[in-house]
Structure formats: C-alpha cells, structure tokens
Amino acid sequence: MTHILYASPPSSLISRSLSEMAKSTRRRKMSSTTISQLRRLLASASLDTKRLLAYEPNVFDDKQLLRLLSSTFNDLEDRKNISLSAKQQLFRALLTCLSNSNPPLLNGRFLAWSEQNLPRFRRTARARPSPLLDLIPQQAAQGLTPDFSPAAALDHVHDQIENACRAEIEEYRQMLLDQHALLNSVKCNDISEDSSHDGYLENPRLRKAHRDALEQFVGCVENNEPLPDPPLNLLPALRKRYQLPSKNARPWLLAQYRLPNQTLHAIFILVALRTGWNPQSVASLTIDNLGGEPGGSLLLQSFKLKTDDKTPAVAISRKDKLAQDAIGLLRSNLYWAKKLKMVPANENRLWIGWSSKPDARQIVADGHLLRRFIDRHNRVHPRFHGHLQEGRSRP
Question: Same structural domain for residues 211 and 64?
Fold first, then answer.
C-alpha cells in the first residue's frame, strides 16, 4: 500500500481518495477493519489495477472506472487463499475508498453495478458472469463503444425472460395445432410419421384412445353437456413434450378452452414485466381492471394490497402483439372457466388455473411454479424476482 502511494502522483486517484478518507475519519468514525482490508487488497493488486489507481481523477472517465472495478474483480477471483466472503469484504473496502474521492466518482450507477456483481463472491455454485463484463470483449472486437450502464444488463435479462414467456405461449399454440391435427385425422394412421406426434403417439391404439377422448370432451363442450371424468392418464412422453406437470389429462383435453398452468404462469410473469407491479398487485388484476383506449391499446390498473391504493395505470400498445395476445388468452380462459362451470358465474379474477381445491385456483407467483419456469428456460434465479419488479411497458 505504501509502495503504491509513493509511486503514484499526489493527484492520482488512490492518493486523493485516501487523503479524503483520512479527512473523513475526523468527522465520523472509520472502521479499522476497512483500513486493514484496503491494505490487503492493494498489497496483492495486479499491475493493471495499480496502473489504473495511479490515474489522475480529472481524466478518469466511466470507461476507466469500470475497467478498474473489473480488474479488481479479476484479481480477487484469481486469489485462492481467501474465502469468498473475504473477497466481498475486500472489494467493499475499495468502494469505500473510491466513494471518498474528490470529486466523487462512484455515483448510483456504479454502486448498482457493484451490487449486481458482488454475488459472484458468494458460493461457487451461485457464481455467474456479469452481462456487462461479457459485453466488453464482444463490443470491443466489433469496434463498438461498450455500453457500461446497468440498464444494459437489465435490458438483457428482461429480453431473456420475455423470450421465455413467448416460448411458453408458442408451446401452447403448438399444442392446439397438434390437437387439431389429431382430430382431423379420419383414421388413426392418417397422421404422417414426421408429424410432431411422433415419439408419444406412435402406437395406433394409444393414438386412437387419445383422439377419442379428445373428441368426447370437445363434443361435450360444444353441446353444453356435463364433462365426464378423463378416461385416460397422459403418457409420460406426452407430458414431457408439453411440460405438463400432472398425469391428469383434463388440462390437455380442455386446452382449446382453458390455459395450462405453465402458460398461465408465463403470462403472469409477462404482465409483471410490462407493468412493473409487484406479484401481489399482478395477482389482484381482475377482468374489471382491463380497459380499452382509442387506437386499440389496453389499459391495466390493479390495487396495492397493503394500502388498497390503485397502482399506476399501464397502457399496453396495440403494437405489442405478445402482450395483447396474452391478455386475450386471459380473457378467454376466464370466459370458458365460467361457461364450463369450473368457477362461479360472478368470478372476475383472471388468474384461474387448474387445481383440485377451488380456493387454490388463483395462480400467483409462488416459488414452486417460479422454479419450474426457471428450470425449463435456464433463467437466473437469484435476481429473477427483482427483475420482475423493474418491468416496463414497451411500444
């Protein structure tokens, strides 16, 4: 640490930061542990990190500051003789030092960036690369100016989650197409061998049994007749094909009218992304909260459970085909749930799923469904809940 100070100009970043930190100890108590951790960090800093610390603040821009933080992260990751929690404490000591620089360098953007990356110094199983750090070599190779803002990483995660929701809805659409192909086959052998039914309905007997059951349920719905008990259980291969969690065939047999739970939950997550509401406010959304605007836009507004105040109204543009389609599926799901007498006629909640208990049919963002969604699409779990609350409406 002393060597770095002697080798650095008096106006360098590290010199001025330490000087300001020394002055601050006169105004408030500075932990001796922070000083000790900073000494440990600087003693093992790489040459690149030391060179960055020797820069003068008047020429120290955002790009160099991010490079310093990245270099420090790499130094700590390469050290095998200290624990992960110690690495996190050493890095926080550097943040404390930099926050005392004059003029201040660490604004809210870089503090948020640091908090986003500090989980890398937790358990090894949870360590994951930073989207911002991944973008640096990619954009540098293309001759582009890297975007170091935390919003860039947040947009990247938003896009991943949105694509996962889109994939769930497309999977539901594909299920309907497969069912139509099954119903339109006059004979059980009419379905071509290269169709999407291969692998789980190859057996003619099983194919006929599933088609007959599907025809029976569709006929009961169209003729307004009571629904019978499902005559069969779903095959394991068919459940795997459509990611159906239960062997109960009723959600598959009525998929043309009711949404499967995983599709409904994907729409729940999509609405949370678009509105930025917390899960409780999204779960409080009812059919009465859906309003139309001139031009084809949808206006969503719900309630805050703690204060019973209205949430900020969010407009879903008519150009947002994904969200518009998802809201349409929600309307249809509630309509058919009432018509099939699966819920009371005065039910106005939108998140009506499949459950053997009537009081548990309201789908919410519970941990079990959330983990299953993440497992299917390989999303990042620890930060997922926070990203949902950072949602926004897209044009």
Answer: no
CA 133 to chain centre: 19
Tokens of 238: 């068919």
Domain shared by 217 and 302, yes or no? yes
The DSSP letter of residue 353 is -
Taking the C-alpha atoms of residue 327 and residue 113, their distance in angstroms, rounded to an integer, is: 34
With respect to residue 135, please indicate whether it lies within any of the assigned structural domains.
no
pLDDT at 188 over 80: no
Rg (CA), the chain: 28
Find out whether 152 and 131 touch, Cβ atoms under 8 Å.
yes
Same domain, 164 and 93: no
The DSSP secondary-structure symbol of 125 reads G
What are the residue ranges of helices labelled H in 57-142?
Answer: 62-78, 84-98, 108-117, 131-141
Q: Tell whether 118 and 195 lie within a shared domain.
A: no
What the block records as the tokens of 89 is 């404490």
Instruction: Please check whether residues 46 and 115 belong to one and the same domain.
Output: yes
Residue with more model confidence, 328 or 192: 328
208/182 Cα distance (integer angstroms)? 9
User: Would you state the pLDDT for residue 57?
Assistant: 54
Residue 395 maps to a domain:
yes
Task: Assign 3-state DSSP to the chain and report helix, strand, coil percentages, each to 5.
Answer: 60, 5, 40
Instruction: Determine, yes or no, domain membership for 116.
Output: yes
With respect to residue 45, please indicate whether it lies within any of the assigned structural domains.
Answer: yes
Mean pLDDT over 3-8 rounds to 48
Torsion angle of alpha carbons 80, 83, 84, 85, nearest 10°? -150
Look at the chain and report how many structural domains it folds into: 2
List strands edge to edge, sheet with 298-300.
290-292, 298-300, 314-316
Distance separating alpha carbons of residues 227 and 240, to the nearest angstrom: 25
> Are both 212 and 264 inside the same structural domain?
yes
Range of the domain at 13: 2-123
Task: Dump pLDDT digits (tens) for 198-207.
Answer: 445 667 777 7
- Whether 92 and 200 map to the same domain: the answer is no
CA 295 to chain centre: 30
pTM of the complete model: 0.56
DSSP of 136-197: HHHHHHTTPPP---HHHHHHHHHHHHHHHHHHHHHHHHHHHHHHHHHHH-SSTT-S-TTSTT
